[in-house]
Amino acid sequence: MIRASLFLIGITLPMMLVGCVSMVLPRVSTENSGPPAVPAIATDGLTRASWEGGRADLLARFEAEIYGAWPGDAPARVTARRIIDPSAFEGRGRLEEWDVDLGPMDTHLVVLMPAGATEPLPVIVMQTFCGTRTAFGGAFDLSPPVNPSARECGTSGGWQSALMTSIFGRHIAEPPMEQILDRGYALAFLHPGDIVPDNPTGAPPALDLLMDGRESGAIIAWAWGYARVIDALESDPRFDDQRMAVWGHSRNAKSALVAAAFDPRIDLVLSHQAGTGGTTLTRSDVGESVAQITETYPYWFNGTYAGYGDTEAAIPIDQHQLIALMAPRPLLIGGGWRDAWSDPQGSYRAGVGANPVYALYGSDGLRQERLDAFDPTADIAVFMRRGLHGVQPSDWDAFLAFLDAHFSHSQ
Fold it and tell me: How many structural domains are present in the chain?
């Protein structure tokens, strides 16, 4: 059965989930989840003033060594809003679609708000592999992607959807809308393929358009997309600018974390199975290597990062520093016990490595002693569940528990 499923993955998923990392079956160990296997952030003379004074230089190093240039901070502009359904999901929510001018390109933002909730609303910004229409199962009259190279996965009920959810989980394309609405959270969906399509044909011209000759990669471009959604939401008083979370799985989890490092307006990050180039330490010998990820997806990062393939120990920065750039904002790191490819141990060690900076702000940071000791009240928390790479109902239970704990929001 496993061999058959893996065979189908190899045939069909390049068409459906381009950018999703591979799965590895051996169970991740809970042992040896100790200090980072990299030099910790130096604490001698470390103060909030010195850390904040060095932020710009550290961000520039991440641009130079891994991600390429941040596209800039010219704000996005909402040019039109349309009501799609004022009583969606059996009256639970109001569904709107916004036209948004990002500067170099246009896109559509789909916004779902809980009915009857007190405004201003907390909001979860999401980027999905499959686009906004697929996120809603094709049930609403939503616009197709603006960029014709941005791929979609089809609507729910078809063979693609059945195969995709059987392998990657019930919520890989469609989050549990009713559950989220009932907890009082709004959702804002952006298709990242409108910014940079996740395929080797569409990505290079899109990056050229966005960057105007500067070298950059898709991960940081998609991160920039999260920041531009924050622009759009902040222009609408129905949303709480102190409770804006970003969510991502796999490649989008990498982008969500990068977005928070560059944009302090992001209040919380749900980074699920981010793996290499995300929450996992580059200088780790488990899971996907730099050589593997940059060979498969050469447009995700800059050329300098690809040069660390098979020489990861030589990289002068690592992901515990990227997490530290979020401090003291909350970060949930999600993982699966059979997803060794994304190296949950490396993500755990990166979280521990960020603790000295979180401490500057009076936070304990990551305080759980094992991968399997999820504490949703901690400012950095690791959640692990059974299974492989994907998005399951139990993941959303953890996401919402973490949001409730940090946004002081309950049913």
Answer: 1
